# Entry
Amino acid sequence: MWDVMMWPIVACLLLPGLLVYLGMHVVRRGIIFVDIAMAQMASLGVCFAVMKHMDLDSPLTFWISLGFTLLAAALFAFTGKRTGEVPQEAIIGIAYVVAAAASVILLSYSTEGDEQIKNMLIGNILLVTKQEIFRTLALFAGVGVFHWFARKRFMMLSFAPEEAVAIGVSVKLWDFLFYATFGLVVTSFVQIVGVLLVFTYLIVPAVCGILTARRFGVRLAIGVALSLVGGVTGLMVSFYQDLPSGAAIVCVFGVLLVLAGIVSIFVKGEPRSVDA
# Structure
């Protein structure tokens, strides 16, 4: 078993922490589907590389994918509205649909288009290599350090946006920096696990933490712990039941979310709001 599962398990243990942290911000901002939209934009870059018959593991493919993601970051930062008649989720949803449709069109030029669509959706974490894990971990560490030094701005924009506006914070600039670093993380992770698992890791652990605790630090710790349990458990289930690994992990996270909802009822008397 370990010759197949060792590096996927290592990936599930080392990589999800930053995604849970970013997911806490995403849920608080009320832009739940921004991660799946950004992941789809990253996948659109990969589809472009497929159409051009590029090596999918090459640095050029990564930079093309990141370029598409940064375009989405700029779009969401400079056109999103915190108030107004058009909610930001509408813009995010439109971007996702257009990117998904464009991906299908680009892959129609490839003889392996159907297989590529499947891989982009559910990925194949079983194929992750040691080099991919530690390269991605180094990138995540860099993004984490940046967020640590800029944490006051990011926390203010996510949890007290009115205060940020009142003291003159450049909201659009800092929103772009948030989306850009978020996109860098998503671009790296989506090539390993696929679009659906990126969305799951970003949202489900964060929501579980919010349902079962009040303080941000406690919520983050719960979310990280559940991301580790969910990822490793899903891998074990997929191995012993001969199931697709990505789909198994997503379903395990769904079970964990239901359990978190039940726990919140006993702790609070009713499910908590997902607002941080």
About this structure: The mean pLDDT is 85.
